[in-house]
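Supplementary Text 2. Reproducibility record for the structural model of the 182-residue chain.

All settings were left at their defaults, and a single model was retained for analysis rather than an ensemble. We include the record here because the model underlies the residue-level annotations in Supplementary Table 4.
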Amino acid sequence: MVKKKKTTIEMPVLNTRLVAATKVIANDYNPNKVAPPEFDLLVLSIKEDGMTQPIVTYYDETNDVYIVVDGFHRYRACTEVFHLEELPIVTINQSLSNRMASTVRHNRARGTHQIQSMADLVLKLSRNGWKDIEICKHLGMEMEEVIKLKQATGLREAFSSHEFSRSWEEFEARYYPGEANE
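Retained model, structure tokens:
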């Protein structure tokens, strides 16, 4: 029997603490941008689930500030939307080059959602009684996206409880109120 060698890793997450929001600043190199719908979804996530991940920072001793390495959009949501006076942070002690690499690793490691997996998830929510409008709200989707994802799972079951309109105008009035005369 071959014994596996145990690996030890740093665990900054075990040292999460609250610091004054005024002591946390953005870095000047983050290539990640978030579109408004995804930012709104992040805000909804924090509102409904609370702050589930700390902001990863580097402590700049010279200026007595914490520079964001990962979590800039959480930082923005907490300061601009929720107006928090304290933010949950963890710190890493890395060189600037390593912090830049860390930012990119954190961003890219989140991955992307696969179409079929998202379609299956939408179908499961629908089976659990969620209406299309609820799926839109809670997953940050447009109605058209939900319908396309349902189509990807097969029309019959996905639309079995869907109430079809008799006309396109009726459909638009129901799912896109206020946009008909724009």
